[in-house]
Amino acid sequence: MKYRGIIFDLDGVICFTDQYHYQAWKNLADEIGVYFDEQINNRLRGVSRMDSLDIILEKSEKEYTKVEKAVLAEKKNTLYVSLLENMTSADLPHEVKETLDKLRQAGMLLAIGSSSKNAKLILSHLGLEGYFDAISDGTNITNSKPDPEVFLKAAQFINFKPEECLVVEDAIAGIDAAIAGGFASAGLGEAATHTNVTYPMSKFSDLLTVTE
Ligand code: BG6
Ligand code: MG
């Protein structure tokens, strides 16, 4: 076995909540009259809620206070959580579930390493409550990706060293975080284009070959 543990990002890797993040931020940006598009959205992947808001406000002419920013972030999250309401286990792709089951059967421990404070809520919508061996998320970190903290905590939770684990990501910031923490990385989507990603992948089930 090449790796003893696999640490998965959640949004954009296990499920496609990234589209709901986009919708909720777009709604907020339109409301406050700030330009926002898919390209700016890509910079938000893996980045915490407050840091994401700061990126969006780079295009704003108005300076926002800390309190105003907290209100804006809360507004976005309320809409985001309401969009999540419609998610069920039908939103967990078969390919993802089958691959996870096979990796587990091969003896690997599976953990989540997500910057989101909604990770446990999303996992329960997907019917994955209790499925992972450990969950490291936005509720147990102080620094979000590209800082490696979320992955280092995940590795600690499953009792493996970074070099024994593989990180699976869709975000450039996530691959940077994996590298900073001393992890091998597998990239999907934009993360597959990162110059230093260990394994660029075109689909989730490529993990079966990567870990062989
Ligand atoms: C990451 C997403 O997983 O979680 C980011 O890629 C998001 O886009 C971050 O900003 C924080 O999520 P939440 O649910 O705590 O607002
Ligand atoms: Mg992601």
Q: How many DSSP H or I helices?
A: 9
Strand order of the largest sheet: 3-2-1-4-5-6
Low-confidence stretches: none
Structural class: alpha/beta
What is the overall silhouette? globular
Question: Could you characterize what this model shows?
Answer:
The protein has nine helices and six strands, in the order E-H-H-H-H-H-E-H-E-H-E-H-E-E-H. Strand 4 (165-169), helix 8 (172-181) and strand 5 (184-187) form a beta-alpha-beta unit. It has two domains: 5-15 and 89-210, 3-Layer(aba) Sandwich (Rossmann fold), CATH 3.40.50.1000; 18-84, Putative phosphatase, domain 2 (DNA polymerase, domain 1). The protein has a six-stranded parallel β-sheet. By secondary structure, it is of the alpha/beta class. Helix content is 42%, strand content 11%. The longest helix is centred in the middle third of the chain and has 19 residues, at 66-84. The mean pLDDT is 97. Bound molecules: 6-O-phosphono-beta-D-glucopyranose and magnesium ion.
For the structure shown, list the relevant keywords.
2 domains, 9 helices, single chain, binds magnesium ion, alpha/beta, 212 residues, Rossmann fold, binds 6-O-phosphono-beta-D-glucopyranose
